[in-house]
Amino acid sequence: MALNNQNDSVSYDLSYLTELSGGDSSFIQTIIIQFIAEAPTVIHTIAVASSEQNWDELAYQIHKFAPNLAFLGISDIKEEVNKLESFSKLHTDLEAIPQLVDILEQTL
């Protein structure tokens, strides 16, 4: 079940979450509500870590956040999230990180 939100800015697919929950709509709703509530704070923390060049914190936050995107089938920014985690973890291509964080912020 691939769906687009009203603004067509983020595609999501709840198939995995539906399968994981055994079709439990209450569980699915809880996960979605939790994501909506927590994502802005996590994204802000990621942006701060990037601006402070705290690569280890950035890698940690992205690593924690990525499974939430997978659960909700948000794959539009999968490549960017993978790069963010890799670059910050390995301390490579650091000049690309601010733009990747911007993409994450604007997409979500």
Q: Can you put this structure into words, describing what you see?
A:
With about 110 residues, this protein is mainly α. Helix content is about 70%, strand content about 5%. The protein is built from 5 helices and 2 strands. The protein has helices at about 15-20, 25-50, 55-70, 80-90, 95-105, and strands at about 1-5, 10-15. A two-stranded antiparallel sheet has the order 1-2. Helix 3 packs antiparallel against helix 4 and helix 4 packs antiparallel against helix 5. The longest helix is centred in the middle third of the chain and has 27 residues, at about 25-50. It starts with a strand and ends with a helix.
Task: Briefly characterize the structure.
With 108 residues, the chain is mainly alpha-helical.
Structural class: mainly alpha
Widest sheet: strand ordering:
1-2
Give the terminus-to-terminus CA distance. Answer: 20 Å
Order of helix and strand elements from N to C terminus: EEHHHHH
